[in-house]
Amino acid sequence: MEEPVKHQRLVVALLALALASGVGACGGSKQSDHTTSAQPTSSASPSPARSPVQDAEIDLHIKEGVHAISVGLQSWAVSQAKPHYPSGADRATLAKYMSDPWPINPLTGADMKPGSQPGDYTYEVKPGKESCTVTGHLSDGTDYMPQVLRTG
């Protein structure tokens, strides 16, 4: 019975150490992925709003969202009598074909939505609806399009 108590004390000690070292304040929690806060300023030189590590984490979330939407589109397409892609790719259209939660734009904390702003995505379906693309817009404004989806 003493072993679980030692384990519990170790976990508490590690959490205290992590908090004391500032992990919670430096973006170590998932909550920081969905909220923005003012960055402290100094009189030396202005610092960027986010570090490259934070941008990389944000971009990873955007890419994961694009992947989830692509999977939802594939599920929607193959569930049709004659496989094809929908005219639009939004939460209302795809919710039945995706597992919750809908992907979040890590820059706004709101649902990812069709649009051209960083953290959102652009959906394009080709004439005939046999292929489509989902393009995510990364934190620096560049586009991420992993593949062209095809029904056949």
Can you walk through the features of this model?
It is a single chain. With 152 residues, the chain is α+β, with helices and mostly antiparallel strands. The protein has a domain at 52-150. The chain has 3 helices and 4 strands. Strands 1, 2, 3 and 4 form a 4-stranded antiparallel beta sheet that branches. The longest helix has 27 residues, at 52-78. The relative contact order is 0.14.
User: N-to-C SSE series?
Assistant: HHHEEEE
Question: Which strand-content bin applies to the residues?
Answer: 5-15%
Helix content: 25-40%
The overall pLDDT, averaged over residues, is 77
Sheet with most strands:
4 strands, antiparallel
Distance between the termini: 60 Å
| Tally of alpha and pi helices | 3
Sequence stretches where pLDDT stays below 50 over 5 or more residues = 1-47
What integer value in Å does the Rg equal? Answer: 21 Å
- Inertia-based shape: elongated
Number of strands: 4
Query: Structural class of the helix and strand makeup?
Result: alpha+beta
